[in-house]
Amino acid sequence: MMKTTFKLARKTTFYLGLLFLALLVTNCSNDDDQVTPEPPDYEFGEDFEEVDDLPEVTDEDPEFEEPETGSIEASEDTDALLVDVNEGEEISEENQAKLNSVSSYNETLPASAEESATSLTDEEIETILDAEELDEDLQSVQAELENAPQEIKNLLPVLNFDFDVDEEMAQAEFSGVAGTKLSISREDIVAQSVNGDCIAAADEAYDEVIADLQSQRDTQLASVESNYDRRLSEAETRNEARMEALDEYRTEVREMIINTSSQLLAAAVIAEDNDNDDLAKQLRLLSLFYAIDGRSKLNEWYTAASERIASTYEAEQATIEGIKEDREADVMAAYEAAEDDAQSVYNNVTASCHNQGSGN
Predict the structure, then answer these.
(1) Are 305 and 70 in contact, with CB atoms under 8 Å apart?
(2) Contact at 8 Å (CB) between 98 and 155?
(3) pTM recorded for the entire structure
């Protein structure tokens, strides 16, 4: 009986062992058949689509007005006098009064004035116009002519120039507004997160949108710089054209003064040939006055007009510089605002990475 019982126990133990072994083999087989799940695919491109492109830059060309450079005109009274004298008939009372005023004025001048008029020639008239500095006798006549009575001034060249015009220099200030950066850096966010793959995807999407914004910014800044260079070149061209026109007009005025003085002198020579010494002296004096006063006014006008043109050029350059600075500020402000928007999106998506990594 005991032998039978022992055999049953051995059989039971054997079969239990086989069953345990079978279960163990089955469990191991199931473990081998399990597939490791793929890591999550982090895509944040759509999140960053809410970051707008930079707005177009309005960079219109400014309008510049031409400076008022004045003029020098011939004396209408002297022109009328010459017509009357050259007709060879009796001089009108009106024109005779003009000549008499010349004689009366001459009495207030040093004797050297009449001496210079008596020896005046066409060559000396040109010398007077082109001289850098007059001799002492002629300088004294020039000084007196500046305070001559109105009837004498009416016989001299007319200077038209507004010396009271205020030159306004355009002063442009840099008006850009710097964007406010967020206080949380990307490094801080990475340090707070435990999900590296999620952060890497966020970094890639952020870098892509920032690279695109930087490309837009650089393109716009290059356009602003190009407009700036073109406007400066155009301003320089305008300045050169103004000075060329000024020089041409100066030559015309010089010729007008010389021609009028020479015509007066020629009429005086004719009067001398006709033994009309009084008329000859009056015409010679007026010829001298016209040349000296014309030279003085021509130089005064040319200096003032040149300075006004230079001032206009400087004002245009300042305006162009101010426009460039303003447009660059506009571009940078728009870029920094878009950069802040991208940073805000980045903060939001990396916050989700942090939450996933924390198991929340």
Answers:
(1) yes
(2) yes
(3) 0.76
What is the Cα–Cα distance from 91 to 138, expressed in whole angstroms?
29
73-to-125, 165, 186, 222 alpha-carbon distances in Å: 18, 20, 75, 49
CA-closest candidate to residue 184, choices 343, 357, 349: 343
| DSSP for residue 331 | H
Backbone phi, psi, residue 160, to 5°:
-110, 105
Please write the tens of the pLDDT for every residue from 38-49.
556 555 556 566
Using CA atoms in the order 77, 80, 84, 87, what is the torsion angle rounded to 10 degrees? 150
- Rounded Cα–Cα distance for residues 163 and 269 (Å): 39
Say how far apart CA 122 and CA 104 lie, in whole Å: 25
**What tens digit of pLDDT does each residue of 175-204 get?**
333 333 434 455 554 444 446 778 877 787
Query: Is there a contact between 64 and 316 (Cβ–Cβ < 8 Å)?
Result: yes
State the DSSP H helix or E strand holding residue 134, giving kind and residue range, or none if neither: none
Q: Which amino acid is at 115?
A: E
Give the model's confidence band at 294: pLDDT under 50 very low, under 70 low, under 90 confident, else very high: very high
Query: Alpha helices, DSSP H only, in 168-276?
Result: 186-192, 196-273
Paired sense of beta strands 158-160 and 71-73, if any: antiparallel
Q: Which stretches within the chain are classed as H helix?
A: 2-33, 45-48, 76-86, 93-106, 111-118, 122-130, 136-145, 150-153, 186-192, 196-273, 277-357
Give every CB contact of residue 18 below 8 A, 6+ residues apart in sequence: none
Residue 329 CA to residue 178 CA, distance in Å, equals 8
Beta carbons of 302 and 136 less than 8 angstroms apart? no
Q: CA distances (Å), 217 to each of 45, 106, 227, 238, in order?
A: 21, 75, 15, 31
